[in-house]
Each structure stands twice: as structure tokens, then as C-alpha cells.
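WARN no homologs supplied; continuing
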Amino acid sequence: MIQYCQRVTVKDFITKAETSTRNKKGKREYLNDLKTKDMMDKLNDYFESMVEIPRIKVGERQTLETLINEEALKLYQPGTYMCPDILLDIISYTFQPISDMASVNAPYPNFNLSMVSSVTASGYWTGGLLGHTEFSNFSSGIYTVAGGDEWGQLILLHFVVI
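OK structure emitted
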């Protein structure tokens, strides 16, 4: 990856104007589509040759693409959930360095909050919002949990159900 990045030049980037939430405008630089595809193909080839990721449902191995597109299991019963009214007015979060603490910026007095969340699950839900839903316990096997954030950080966790 480092060798690939050392060969990237200024002309491999494009600038895009973006509008974020709250109508804030800015510009970002991205690799152009051709270079992005080339880099992702090379990265995928590397991972396929160096990393074996057990599949959840079919076959012995999976690629990064199949990992991303694998069927997601619903850990919460499908339905409509309401957020507390206090969340409606939050403008932004300012994270403290190397910490899970953030300052919540809102029209009312700001406050600090630990940005930690945990989930305990023994199974998953099938069905949809309008139809019948059913809970199933995890069957024996290897599962992968993928989590991401607003900044494109990704973490993978594998766990085994016996």
C-alpha cells in the first residue's frame, strides 16, 4: 500500500464541492475513479492472497466485496424506534483526543458524554417492518461483525458460536 501511494501524483486527484448537514459547504480531494478502482483491485488481490476470512453462509472463503455485501443480520426487532427529543437539536460532537468522550454541541448548554455503546445478542431477527418478524438464535459457526464510523474507519470482529 505504501509503495502504491508513493506512485500517486497530484493529477490522480479530483476536487469535489460538498454540502454537509446544516448546509456547510466545503471541498474535498478524492482519488479519481480510475485510480480508486485500480487501488481497490490491488488491495483486494493483496487481502485475498494474505488473509483468509471465513464465510458466514456459503463456501470456504470470501473477498472484501462479499464481506461487505454479505447478508446483514438484524440484531434488533424490525420496527419504528423514536429518538429522545434531546437528540433533535444536537449540532455536532467534538471528540477529545484518544478518548471516547465528546462534547455535545447544541443550542442549550453543551455537555460531555461518553460515546460508548455495547450490544449483547443471542440471535437475529428476520422479516420486515410491515410483515411477520421472527427471532432465531445464532446457529453454530463463525460470524463476522463489521462496524464503521463517519470518518470511514472500519473494524471487523469475528466470533464463534459453539
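Residues 1-51 form one domain.
OK
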